[in-house]
Design brief:
The complex is a heterotetramer, with 2 copies of chain A and 2 copies of chain B.
Chain A: H1 5-30, H2 44-53, E1 64-66, H3 72-78, H4 82-89, H5 123-138, E2 144-149, H6 156-165, E3 174-180, H7 189-192, H8 199-203, E4 208-213, H9 217-234, E5 238-243, H10 265-275, H11 281-303
Parallel strand pairs in A: 1-2, 2-3, 3-5, 4-5
Helix pairs in contact in A: 1-2, 1-3, 1-4, 1-10, 1-11, 2-3, 2-9, 4-11, 5-6
Chain B: H1 4-18, E1 24-26, E2 46-48, H2 53-65, E3 71-73, H3 84-96, E4 105-111, H4 126-131, E5 136-138, H5 143-155, E6 159-165, H6 184-191, E7 219-222, E8 227-231, H7 235-250, E9 254-258, E10 261-263, H8 267-277, E11 280-287, H9 292-304, E12 313-317, H10 327-333, H11 337-349
Helix pairs in contact in B: 1-5, 7-11
The chains are: A alpha/beta, B alpha/beta.
Bound molecules: thiamine diphosphate (2 copies) and magnesium ion (2 copies).
One magnesium ion binds next to loops of chain A.
Chain lengths: 334, 351, 351, 334
């Protein structure tokens, strides 16, 4: 491992936390406490290191983050609270990301430059161009980071992001991450794509590109460090193709049941931690129990929280609410 | 009785076996899933496309130009808004080529709220779509209509947009599709794909009769004297429910009309009803600014002004960016039965 | 007097020097061309984007999220229809983030017919655009309004869609922009890029005053008693022309209202006028099915029904796939002064 | 030259014909006989050979053609009449491509599978996918040919066309041609793109790709032959990047004046014909005069033809005109 024992313990802790949270969300969905689940079980080995290496803060001195809906591990690493994710799952008024409007794992955290996670696949690949342009002008070490899935690379915006980021002498400091779990919803990547690495598409635009195993913590950490160093210093784009797992299938719409035969990054990492005698089975169990407990208590608390009021549908459409009130539905109190 | 998803599936089966359809395609439309709503399970010519809506509509147009009668699916209406230019192209190809290039194709797409779909699985599409030209636009509210309208859409020599009220896909109708088995469970075993491994599964299709529905014909769901309620899709049931309650509680006689085809729409049926009742409420769940229902109201105001006994009303979705996930938000965003009752009551009381 | 293209240019200049605009961009927006209609000539922060409308809107949104106050151009409204999903995204970002992410940006785009633009340089966009949420939408009809509305659009903390009636870009107004030189020729030499090599050219900007126009306020172009004509953009002139002829020929007193902001629109001004005159014609050139004017009519019918003395009318573009190139086709496709006269006359005669 | 004297004479004849036609159209525009000009002066050396090598006919046994607005030379080679192009320029009712609706050089010829030439840049790259799928299923030697400009490659559809055509074991027989004149309207390609050949983008999808000089007749002919042989037989896509000239600028909107410093494919070809003693100055002059004459007479004739009737705006919207007549504008006779 290219990094300290403490860091490894921290990474393990966060990976387990993220997994436990996702499993709690799935249970909430199955027991009717949340309408829909989609999330990142199977991507922790990559997303925890990513979260650690992000330059976190608000504004152009820091990284701008255009994320996919499977990045709870990144967000927990940045510092979000389990309970807030559970609030979004249960769509209570206190959901800090969307006020009960959006699906779980659709984060928005202004103070850390986390732009809305969107449902339409790949629109973030268009939006990231703009923060990239702003980052280029601003200089410094802040960069734009964008994540999308493998199936999403078929949308035109994937090419747009590569094209705009690679304009000669106007390159943009964008780290473009593709998390490849080999599936759209049910459609295998191989059925609807050519059999060349996605990274090749970056190279066609002269963009530095790499393909890595995102189920391996050390490989992920090193690859992200390398890519970020390049983007931060050279102010040029980088395309990182990351092989990950989809441990509970696509979403609750496809059942959210455990999928056999996928590599589990946590299991792999725990093997290494055990071999290196950094942590043992007992430690693993303790971490799990800690977060199991935290998640259960969070659910209990959230279940008592109120849902948003009907009138809030007209809030935050415009800076001034009055602008939104034309026309006003007959059924709603003013 | 078949549910709406089964009805669509059975129509597509007739499409591929009898009407020359060679491609039913879109995201997750082919095996193993057969569509996120199962509408394409068991269809032999169904295939999975790349995750690229622009490619899907472009492909459908190209297939139509090659004379192939494609049926393409966009997975949710929420994801069709990056293809509006291409839909316009489909709709103007015959015209701009001075009649040379016909475009016979069907696009089907689930619309509307009612399944806790949050902001990106609840959008309506009729207001933007009816503003485009060169397309016929249909929206069924029952399995029988879903079946008949799909067959007519496939046979129609023009591009047809087939909107599916997604919240109704599991609903069963009162009218049977001619030829379907008595017992709905029997139908399930015949044409629903099994859980687990489907690689060896083959559907057994009932022998069905094409009802040969005309596009452009509305249906009077409930006759009435006091007020006309003009609606379609998911709102048909809420309107019928409201009408029944209004009958019981206020002895108001409501005529409920299901448009079924949004373009070209059945102006005769609309005007006849309004001229009879003198009062009208148009109900849909799309957002209310520049709403298709406003077109219908405008036509009514122009053509039936002197028959109107009260201001015609629109009841539509609140003008907000999306349907929020939490239940109070969804309820506040799209018409509910109680709002329909209140609005109809108000219109009937006005003079 | 400045023409509309110059007015926009001068507003953008103030935008970049005083209001924090750092990017004015789009296809051919930067040097040497400065926009296909010259609206961005001489703007220091203007730059050429790739030919990619989805990238342009995405870039604008990203710039807005980074607090940069961008002004993006889509070259023609005809080419904005592949970005509707992204426009929806711009409009819902603040809302879905529960107020966290403001989106301060302007998109400007030429709309409408009148320049023999054939089917792909004549489209209107207000009907689709007003159906989207979270945007303010403006459309000037004079250089002064073009100037003032652009400045207000830039200052507004919300996404603003700035529609430009392209046929008016060379027209000069009657009112001067506060501070512009007496002689329009002088302005031309100051701020119009020369033919030929422009690499060394620098504009000389007059010192102008921001009229601080409020978004959401209509303008009464012509006071009148008998009938209200509600319009905007290119049709303002045709309506005023029609009003003048109707005065002369029939002694009909027409009130012409220029909406200027399509959302949020000035309902007070509209309702006041209609309550006064009892008759109304809404005029625009977008195609007439699910047309923004139908929304205005619907609101009028709901709120002013008992003031109406005749059926309110819409005069809009024919519901065809595009404006054909040949003159008879263009004339038949969008409202002409004579049709406005006929319609107003009919509405005034009805009782 | 890899082909016969007769063929060379034929090619020269067609190139000159195309040029003379375009120059006539420009003159018509400048003298107010047509609202707008856009066309292909400077692309003849490529487009005449292309027209010759097309498998011409109706239906899937033949090539489907999704063309750019600079392909008058291809169309003349296929056999369209000068006068019909002039009809479209003057938008008379007899314009066979659009009935007076569309700009000049926006062809549509059903009997030869020429799909509408469209104004929106690159939408043909989406449409071509469908005829490609149909061609793949149909088999035989018919292929789909699509042409777009260099600037247009920034639109997402360019990537869509490459992606859909290169699906493993589902490749499409599409010849994808990019005519690179180094400009959008006023924007240099180099200002808004990376400095890698466009052909690289095909290679990223595993697509056979080549870059050629489209101002050279022999090189063009050979390259098209090679590419077509590959697509027809292997039923796989091919990307051909073709360097061409823009001799009168973008369109009448940019003045339609002769541009200095561009290579003129006709001048180059005439040098070769002269060197090879196949044709001489006199022959060149005669060909020019022939088509000058033909174009002048065509204009004369067309000027007497009627414009379309207003009511035809409602024709050909639907198969059955009645479907379009709701609602009917108050100003139009029924
Ligand atoms: C534009 C758009 N089209 C379709 C969908 C429906 N949809 C949701 S997730 C998904 C598959 C995405 O696959 P991929 O990009 O590989 O990401 P993954 O979910 O595998 O991480 C689809 C088709 C959507 N959300 N947006
Ligand atoms: C989608 C779209 N955006 C913008 C335009 C306006 N426009 C017409 S031609 C053109 C430049 C096209 O450049 P290129 O693709 O290189 O083709 P060329 O004209 O150089 O052959 C532009 C921007 C358009 N027609 N369509
Ligand atoms: Mg995936
Ligand atoms: Mg070019």
């Amino acid at each position: 491992m290219p990094f300290s024992k403490e860091k490894q313990i921290k990474i393990h802790d966060l990976m387990v936390k993220a997994r436990l949270l996702e499993e709690r969300l799935i249970k909430m969905n199955k027991s009717g406490l949340g309408f829909f689940w989609i999330g990142g079980a199977g991507e922790e080995a990559f997303h925890v290191p990513l979260g650690m290496l992000i330059k976190k803060g608000e504004g152009l001195d820091y990284d701008f983050l255009h994320f996919h809906y499977r990045q709870s591990a990144t967000l927990l690493t940045l510092g979000v609270e389990m309970i807030d994710v559970i609030r979004q799952m249960h769509n209570t008024a206190a959901d800090p990301y969307s006020g009960g409007r959006n699906f779980v794992n659709h984060f928005a955290v202004k103070k850390w430059n986390v732009v809305n996670v969107t449902s339409p696949i790949e629109v973030q690949l268009a939006t990231c161009i703009g923060t990239g342009v702003a980052h280029r002008r601003h200089g410094g070490e802040g960069i734009t980071i964008v994540t999308g899935g493998d199936a999403g690379t078929a949308e035109g915006e994937f090419a747009s992001a590569l094209g705009w980021a690679s304009r000669k002498d106007r390159e943009l400091p964008i780290l473009n991450i593709v998390t490849d779990n080999r599936y759209g919803i049910s459609t295998p990547f191989a059925e609807v794509h050519c059999d060349r690495p996605i990274a090749e598409r970056g190279r066609a635009f002269g963009i530095e590109s790499a393909t890595i195993n995102g189920n391996d913590v050390a490989e992920s950490y090193a690859a992200i460090e390398k890519a970020m160093a390049y983007v931060r210093k050279k102010r040029k784009p980088y395309l990182l193709e990351v092989k990950v797992s989809r441990l509970y299938g696509h979403s609750s719409a496809s059942g959210a049941n455990w999928v056999e035969g996928e590599v589990d990054g946590i299991v792999e990492f725990e093997k290494k931690l055990k071999n290196a005698k950094i942590l043992g089975e007992d430690d693993f169990k303790k971490v799990r129990e800690k977060y199991e407990q935290e998640s259960i208590e969070a659910v209990k608390k959230v279940l008592k929280e109120p849902k948003p009021k009907p009138e809030v549908i007209f809030e935050h459409i415009f800076a001034d609410r009055k602008d939104a009130e034309i026309p006003w539905p007959p059924w709603l109190k003013k | 009785m078949a549910n709406m998803a089964q009805a669509i599936r059975m129509a597509l089966h007739i499409g591929e076996t009898e009407l020359g359809v060679k491609d039913v395609f879109g995201e997750d439309v082919g095996p193993p899933l057969g569509g996120v709503f199962t509408c394409t399970q068991g269809i032999k010519c169904a295939w999975n496309s790349p995750l690229d809506e622009r490619g899907i509509i472009g492909c459908a147009l190209g297939l139509a130009l090659a004379g192939q009668r494609p049926v393409a699916e966009i997975q949710f209406a929420d994801y069709i808004f990056n293809t509006i230019d291409l839909l316009k192209l489909c709709g103007n190809t015959r015209w701009v080529s001075n009649g040379q290039w016909p475009v016979q194709m069907v696009v089907m797409v689930p619309v509307g709220a009612g399944i806790h779909g949050s902001i990106y699985h609840s959008h309506s599409f009729e207001s933007v779509m009816t503003h485009l030209q060169g397309w016929k636009i249909v929206i069924p509210s029952t399995p029988l209509d879903a079946f008949g309208l799909m067959l007519s859409a496939i046979k129609d020599p023009n591009p047809v947009m087939y909107l599916i009220p997604k919240a109704l896909l599991r609903s069963r109708g009162e009218e049977k599709i001619p030829g379907e088995p008595e017992d709905p469970k029997e139908l399930n075993t015949m044409i629903d794909a099994p859980l687990g491994d489907r690689s060896k599964w083959k559907p057994v299709w009932p022998k069905l009769k094409d009802p040969n529905m005309l596009l452009g014909k509305a249906k009077i769901c409930l006759g009435g004297r006091d007020v006309s309620v003009i609606t379609y899709g998911r709102m048909v049931f809420k309107c019928v429910e409201a009408a029944q309650k209004l009958k019981e509680q206020d002895n108001i006689s409501v005529e409920v009309i299901d448009l079924r085809t949004l373009f070209p729409y059945d102006q005769e049926a609309i005007f006849d009803s309004v001229k009879k009742t003198g009062r009208v409420v148009v109900v849909n769940e799309d957002t209310e600014v520049t709403n298709y229902g406003e077109h219908i109201l405008r036509r009514i105001t122009e053509d039936c002004f002197y028959s109107l006994e009260a201001p015609p009303a629109l009841l539509a979705g609140a003008n907000v960016p999306g349907v929020g996930l939490a239940e109070p938000l969804e309820e506040a965003s799209v018409p509910q039965t109680s709002y329909i009752i209140d609005t109809v009551r108000r219109v009937v009381k006005q003079s």
